[in-house]
Amino acid sequence: MIYYYFVIPLLFSCVKSEDTVSVVTPETVSPQTETVRQEETEASGNEPTFDTQSEEEQEYLLLNIPAVCNDNNVRIRDLPSIHEGSIIGMLHKDDMVHLKAETRTTETLDGRTASWYELTFGEITGWVFGAYIDIYNEAESREQYRVIQEKKQEITDLPVKLYPDYENGNGTVIGTIFDENTELVLRKHVQRVQIGNMARDYSLIIYDKPSLKNGNAIGNLKLDDYIDISQIAEVTSGDDYYFWANISTDNKITGWIFCRKYGEQLAEILIPYFDNRWEITGRINTSGKLWTVRKMVFQKNSVWRMLDVRDKPGLDGSKVLFELIPKDTDRLVYGVEILSMTEEEDVIDGQTDHWIQIKDEEGRIGWVFGGYTDVERGGAKYRTPEALVHSVLGWH
Prior knowledge:
Helices cover 11% and strands 44% of the residues. By secondary structure, it is mainly β. The protein folds into three domains: 2-161, SH3 type barrels; 173-268, SH3 type barrels (Roll), CATH 2.30.30; 280-384, SH3 type barrels (Roll). The strands form nine sheets. Strands 21, 22, 23, 26, 27, 28 and 29 form a seven-stranded antiparallel sheet that branches.
């Protein structure tokens, strides 16, 4: 499965309203989109200009034509407005879209005047500011589609998935920006944490934006304080990986805290959503239950007993594929890699745990009940995003 990854320098700023967080790029990034430049203007206090629209003017011209995006980081919204429309997707240069409708009125954003287009892009249907869409006559457009598609096909023959599937829960991508050297993914992440001994001193400083260089300190945390996290920003710059948390405190301070910086080897273990950890990869109906399957990344457990490995989670309706058996009497443990895990738990032999899809040392894959596996390290048994956030901010 292939995913787009998106990039931004660490020195970015975010503007947070009650409902949305707007990602703003620094001037070093190439000219951006409707939202990036527009919301930077809003942050500085200079209001953009809009054409007023009465209720009678809220009419759309129906279209049925192909078109192409002409810039990167172009936001798709559910309504034709940066104030009322929520971000539901993202376009990048040369993405091919199909236009369904156009507003009869125009707005001026980023110094450019255009109408809004309703369009479809893959499974997403929404509105994009028209200055970032190019329309050609049908012949030219079809030819451009063909050239772009062939170019993309040279990169991969696999389908490209725009966003990982978190069903609007924790991990859902709500903002993405990129440039040549750095990438940022802004994700929904709702979690209440009590600050504990795992939090570093730098994580106790609250900033007005997620930048150590450009951010201003607006408050401090102390041990035993409770914070409510609403979003996580994961930033990759070269071989360095960072993540920030957008928080609010019980005394009404809202801002960002710098959680950790890792090299690549530790990042795949400890960054909450590294490689889209905890994404929903499917559902399996067996044993009278519908199991939600979640992706696991860099998770290894130990098996201390002979264990049946099944083709599906659950005891009923599944069959044994093979058995894990220690290779000799001196070796009582068998290491397995966890590929997936059911979100739901099961109770077997008095133990409550998840079913896990494992790959053994011979490359064989199947499902086992997690209660029969263990870990030697400390901390949570499974590296879920919530567990990883707690491991850097909470009590050990």
